[in-house]
Design a protein that fits this description.
Blueprint (H helix, E strand, L loop, with lengths): L21 H7 L6 H11 L3 H22 L10 H24 L15 E2 L2 H6 L6 H6 L8 H15 L3 E2 L30
Parallel strand pairs: 1-2
């Protein structure tokens, strides 16, 4: 349990260097965002991100309010509670599915080796539908490589990935909990020297 560079890290709320329980991570992460801390970090960048973040947040809140007001009710009320009752749980569950996907993009990865920071999944349909999101270890190792070049990039580092023990799963990340080779929680892997970066 401690501070991590990545606010969404699966290790941030874990204990003794272990990843957090997947169900706690999936269902509680939605409530852990600190809007004040996010604003402070965006303000430090001085590149307009804070302005556009505020625009996005205002647009979302306005859309939600307008939808709650204009969706007809009988008798007419100011806020359509039925719309809110329908929308809010699905909004929350949508975030939960996103966190589930993110959890298995990192669970079993090696946080001590940049080449192995992520877990990859190479299913063709999954990657075609999700813009090669399955090439997650590759994305962490070289975040600026465009998604259309991920297959070629992976081919160029495949031997190094194998040597460094980059973890892959057979299913899409959102189904990572079904992976037959899922590492057991509580098992630490031996730490090794990180791979040298490829420029």
């Amino acid at each position: 349990h401690g501070d991590t560079l990545d606010w969404l890290s699966i290790y941030r709320h874990g204990h003794e260097g272990e990843a957090e329980n997947p169900w706690r991570y999936v269902f509680l992460s939605f409530f852990r965002d600190d809007v004040g801390a996010i604003k402070r970090e965006l303000r430090k960048r001085k590149n307009g991100d804070l302005f556009w973040g505020n625009i996005e947040l205002t647009a979302f809140a306005t859309t939600l309010l307008v939808m709650a007001i204009i969706v007809p009710t009988s008798p007419i009320h100011f806020i359509n509670w039925r719309f809110m009752l329908f929308f809010l749980p699905f909004w929350y569950l949508g975030h939960c599915f996103s966190y589930l996907n993110g959890y298995y993009r990192h669970y079993g990865a090696n946080p001590d080796k940049p080449i192995a920071w992520g877990v990859s999944s190479y299913g063709k349909i999954y990657n075609w539908l999700f813009f090669y999101n399955g090439y997650h270890a590759e994305h962490h190792f070289r975040p600026k490589v465009h998604w259309t070049k991920m297959v070629k990039f992976r081919q160029s580092i495949a031997d190094l990935q194998k040597q460094e023990g980059v973890r892959t799963i057979k299913r899409a990340h959102m189904l990572g909990f079904l992976d037959p080779d899922l590492p057991k929680r509580g098992q630490h892997e031996a730490k090794a020297e990180p791979a040298k970066a490829i420029l």
